[in-house]
Amino acid sequence: MKLHRKTGLRATALGALVVSGALVLTACGSDDNASPAGEKKTASASNVKCDDAKGQLLAAGSTAQKNAMDLWVKNFQAACAGVEVNYQAIGSGGGITKFNQGQVAFAGSDSALKEEEVAESQKICKGGKGINLPMVGGPVAIGYKLDGVDDLVLDAPTLAKIFDSKITKWNDPAIAKLNPGAKLPDTAIQAFHRSDESGTTQNLGKYLSEAAPADWKHDPKTKSWPAPGGQAANGSSGVAAAVKDTNGAIGYFELSYATASNISTVKLNTGAAQPVEATTENASKAIAAAKIKGTGNDLALSLDYKTKAEGAYPIILVTYEIACDKGNKAETLPTLKAFLNYTVSEEGQKVLSDAGYAPLPAEIATKVREIVPTLS
């Protein structure tokens, strides 16, 4: 299948803030140091409001948003003299741990805080708690390498069986039925998954659990790979590299990794009239159906993984910045607020438009913009 590189998102009915896509929403857990996005736009320093930002700001977490963070940090530091933002892409799980230990001012996570993690955060957030602030959205692509097959369609039940080691050959009847006329070889399927705790893994699990409940019986809440068999690799970059180098391979990672490495991606038969390709625009259509399930200043989202809307790509994730609503350290609070104000601003979102991320719905972005200045 030929990867169509989308270099921008057309304005949608969402009134989108474009969150781009090079950010490989690779979620939670790896030391991805590669930046797969290629040339990226930079923001005009005059459009960044530094306010009282000063000194060093430490953060850690999701590798999915690493490329976005690289852009934001570059622009913010260029505009705000003497400020250093240090984001460690160690995975969502690692980021939350560091946040709840008071080692970082905020964490990036591809899944919202669990109840026990919120309770733990109250020890650090004096008089407050950790809250989820959506910042980046995007599609989780299913990448593959299969010599002679350029266009591949799969559905949720078939994907579930592949990743659960129930379908092991590429010419399996279930795959053949979805790809009439394709010359599928009798090649063994080599399914790659994340070895680290990952929000990307969790979002794929939620999709399979909801869209193919009869075929995916594993815990949809776990960030660790739950199924038997398959091969493990660290981080989205590791999975992407393994798929690119292995004939017969299939794996999952943020779209920007597929784009950067020219990896073919699966189209999904969702029940819509046509199979849906993994693009930022198609992911935006699915994210538009998200509902806020958090209360108060917490903006945790409920995503619709079962959508059958035309052109809506359902394997999506949203990366949150997790911060204290109250009880932030006085020495880092001004920089924390200034930086997050920038990342969720229209300018901060637009610089990502060529990176492969899906736009946050305007309604959600507006709410985040209202909450960040109230952090204390």
Automatic annotation (TrEMBL):
| Residue ranges crossing the lipid bilayer per the database entry | none
Q: Which InterPro entries match?
A: ABC_phos-bd_PstS, PBP_domain, Phosphate-bind_PstS
Task: Kindly list the positions annotated as binding phosphate.
Answer: 62-64, 92, 110, 198-200
Domain (PBP) spans 53-347
Which UniProt key words apply to this protein? Phosphate transport, Signal, Transport
NCBIfam families listed in its UniProt record? 3a0107s03
The molecule here is called Phosphate-binding protein
